[in-house]
Amino acid sequence: MKNKLDNNNITLAIQKNGRLTKYSIDLLEKAGLVVDTDGQKLYAKCRNFPLDIVFIRDEDIPNLVETGVVDMGIVGRNVIAEINALVDNKLQLNFGYCQLVIAVQKESSISAIRDLKNKNIATSYPRIVTQYFQKMNIPVKIIQLNGSVELSPALNIASAIADLTSTGSTLAISDLRVIETIFKSQAVLISQKVTNNDKRQNLIDNLIFRFKATQNAQKFKYIMMNAPQEKLKQIITIVPGLKSPTVTPLAAKGWVSVQTAIQEDVFWEKVEKLKQIGASGIIALPIEKLIT
Ligand code: PRP
């Protein structure tokens, strides 16, 4: 693979075709990386960073990273845990959220994990599921399937399934109900545990720095408002900003303009308080990058 690509570039493996593909490319673009895919789904070059992107099946990504065939990868935590790959988890990416759940048919008498003693459980995640039941001290028989796991109770292959769920629609359509969540997952950025190449390591660190700045920016909004000068102390308590807000006098006597960063998850709650104490003309803007 390296032969086809530029050996001086670092390589990032992303999912070839699935739920993480679009989010992974979005992350690169938000970090300011220009990727020329040309609709190709084998490999792509980054125009403004020494980075090559290779499109790989999820289950192959952890091992390719572990063995250093590629420098980094974006993959679900569930895949890493199932393969038991020894890689460095560099960054949680806040997308690709899903859960590995135990589910049974809606009309089944099984209501709890202990009811599965000596029963068949179908799954594509035999390692995680085996470990879970061993830990719970419940003997079960694992039936490994590589797809269509949700059909196995109806086909009398298994009494329960252990499968990934995200929206829950596959379980609902298959008339299955969840009795336990055994693993929570999201997409993560991984790299090799040890690299002996300083130049490559610097590029990897630089890329992680960019991703973090992009992620930080998404957690904040930039907010501007007009406020009575006398309320300034209260405003600073409500929106203290990263260090402290920028305050500029307005032409109107006794009024100031306040500019600061505000966390997205408390945005409406704080805006409500600001309005109550007399702030007006409140403008909120997205932040593209945030380096703290
Ligand atoms: C997973 C899983 C379920 C489905 C659940 O498969 O195996 O079939 O997602 O998602 P939902 O709760 O949103 O319906 P996925 O579509 O990721 O592809 P796969 O079958 O190749 O694993």
- Number of separate structural domains: 3
User: Rg to the nearest angstrom?
Assistant: 25 Å
- Main sheet makeup: 7 strands, mixed
- What percent of residues adopt helix (DSSP H or I)? 25-40%
How many strands appear in the DSSP assignment? 16
Order of helix and strand elements from N to C terminus = EHEEEHEHEEEHEEHEEHEHEEHE
CATH C-level category of the largest domain = Alpha Beta
- Distinct small molecules bound, one entry per kind: 1-O-pyrophosphono-5-O-phosphono-alpha-D-ribofuranose
Oligomer: single chain
**Amino-to-carboxy terminus distance:** 37 Å
- What fold name goes in the CATH topology slot of the largest domain? D-Maltodextrin-Binding Protein, domain 2
Task: Walk me through what this model shows.
With 292 residues, the chain is α+β, with helices and mostly antiparallel strands. It has three domains: 2-95 and 187-217, D-Maltodextrin-Binding Protein, domain 2 (3-Layer(aba) Sandwich); 98-185, D-Maltodextrin-Binding Protein, domain 2, CATH 3.40.190; 219-286, Alpha-Beta Plaits (2-Layer Sandwich). It has eight helices and 16 strands. It has helices at residues 21-30, 61-66, 77-83, 126-136, 169-173, 198-219, 232-238, 267-276, and strands spanning 10-15, 35-36, 43-46, 51-56, 72-76, 87-92, 98-105, 120-123, 141-144, 160-165, 176-185, 187-192, 220-228, 246-249, 255-263, 280-286. It has a seven-stranded mixed sheet with strand order 2-3-4-1-5-12-6. A five-stranded mixed sheet has the order 9-8-10-7-11. The protein has a four-stranded antiparallel sheet with strand order 14-15-13-16. β3 and β4 (51-56) form a beta hairpin. The longest helix is centred in the C-terminal third of the chain and has 22 residues, at 198-219. The relative contact order is 0.14. The mean pLDDT is 93. It binds 1-O-pyrophosphono-5-O-phosphono-alpha-D-ribofuranose.
